[in-house]
Amino acid sequence: MRIQARTRTSQAVCPSCGVLSGRVHSRYERRLSDQAIAGQETVIHLQVLRFLCRNEVCAKKTFAEQVPGLTVRYGRRSIGLGECLRAIALALGGRAGARLTHRLAAAVSRMTLIRMIRSLPDAAADSRPQVLGVDDFALRRGHRYGTVLIDMATSRPIDVLAERSAESLAAWLQDHPGIEVVCRDRAGRYAEGTTRGAPDAIQVADRWHMWRNLGEAVERTVTKHRHHLRELPQTTTQTDPAPPSDPQPDSDPKPREGRLAERTRQRHTAIHDLLAQGRQIRQIARELGLGRNTVRRFARATSPEELLVNNGTGQRPQALDEFADYLQRRWKEGCTNAEQLHRELRAQGYRGARTTVRQYVRPWRSNAVPLKPPPTPPTVRQVTGWILRHPDNLQPDERHQLETLTAASPAPASVREHVRGFAHMMLHLHGDQLERWMSAVESSDLPELRSFVTGLRRDLDAARAGLTLPYSSGKVEGHVNRIKMIKRQMYGRANPDLLRKRILLAD
């Protein structure tokens, strides 16, 4: 879509010296891309005036007028379209943003969007935040890390440091005086940097990190006493296999039908007619073209149904019939392995193949209930979760197993009581009880928890503040998660300068 327009101004201000001029030098046409209208790309053909500067000492002799809210110097896009593209670039990055601009009928390349991000000025950050959040993020996982600084009052990032060191944090804090509270994790480098850069600031250790460190100590304790887990009561029951259907013949079996059944009946009638005439087995076999064993089998059967139906199973007579009672009894006892049944039958004199046993018990498997595997004892991780979770959130069987474990071993019982005490301090912000809690742990026979207390004493003031003040690093962790998303969007183009722009400027 093309739009023809022209200005009606008679004077303009020189952008260099600021002198108002009404002397027209010439008129020329500018072409501006604008936001799409009705899904169509829009181009504005705008005729503007060029003025002569009336200031003789000004370096500019002529200058072009600008339309407020529409044009900028040397701009080929309207101000509105430029703001829209910059918002897309900050939100989506290069490739994803370029794909979206094609759908918005304002197509630009990914490199254009990246250049727009880099051309943006740095955010005017508040130089005197009162509560500061500090955490690290990976520039290259395992190799390079940076530091993000968050204003906890506005929940906005205010700066990004290219490294995670005590020196860089201390230098930033010295350049930005007035910090009263610093929320951080339990890393020693940030504790040292805060002490050097803002010695009067209150350091707050994050409660989540303390709870996680406590959970690691609990897991080591449960691992040390994991032999008690095998003694816990099992809450699941094992289902017995269903007995096989009775393979005895029905009172009135249904006769077989089909070509095989009809041929069997015809052969049985013919063989018995020849036997009634006094023929021998060899003669009957030669006359009918059958094997002598086949003729003998038909001769022994009093009726053709004996050859078609065997005990109601639809199978011909086989050598396993004499072991049928034994097989049924063993199947009801739970032995459903055909290999095992074959070995037991061989010990009783059976000389058939394993395949025969497998085919014999195959009809029984359709009615059998599969055996459930025996219940396994709870894992160390599961028991650790039971101890760390609120008692009201445990299932009845979990609560029962935990009570059994604590009754069987004094160490898990003591750990559970200490964990409950720490959780009470953390939830109700009773940091004044921390010293008494640590003394109780140090007097117990729990080396793993004593190691956790030793770490708390090295950072005692920050730990006490974390359990007393309402501040936490939750907002900082949220921004770290957002940084991970931004890095994945940039598809390998996450250079530090570009990443820094998107972290600080993206909404």
Secondary structure: elements and pairs:
Elements: E1 2-6, E2 12-13, E3 20-21, E4 24-37, E5 40-52, E6 62-64, H1 79-92, H2 94-103, H3 110-119, E7 131-140, E8 144-151, E9 156-161, H4 166-175, E10 181-184, H5 188-197, E11 202-205, H6 207-224, H7 259-276, H8 281-288, H9 292-300, H10 304-308, H11 324-332, H12 338-347, H13 354-365, H14 380-388, H15 396-408, H16 410-428, H17 434-442, H18 447-458, H19 460-466, H20 474-489, H21 496-505
Parallel strand pairs: 1-5, 7-10, 10-11
Antiparallel strand pairs: 2-3, 4-5, 5-6, 7-8, 8-9
Helix pairs in contact: 1-2, 1-3, 2-3, 4-5, 6-14, 6-16, 6-18, 8-9, 12-13, 15-16, 16-17
Outline the structure in words.
The chain has 507 residues and is an alpha/beta fold. The chain folds into 5 domains: 2-76, no CATH class; 81-119; 131-206 and 472-505, Nucleotidyltransferase, domain 5; 209-234 and 380-466; 259-365, no CATH class. Helices cover 47% and strands 14% of the residues. The protein has 21 helices and 11 strands. The strands form 3 sheets. A 5-stranded mixed beta sheet has the order 9-8-7-10-11, with helices on both faces. Strands 1, 4, 5 and 6 form a 4-stranded mixed beta sheet that branches. Strands 2-3 form a two-stranded antiparallel sheet. Helix 2 packs across helix 3, helix 6 packs antiparallel against helix 16 and helix 16 packs antiparallel against helix 17 (434-442). The radius of gyration is 44 Å and the shape is flat. It starts with a strand and ends with a helix. The model is unreliable at 236-241, 246-253 and 310-314 (pLDDT under 50).
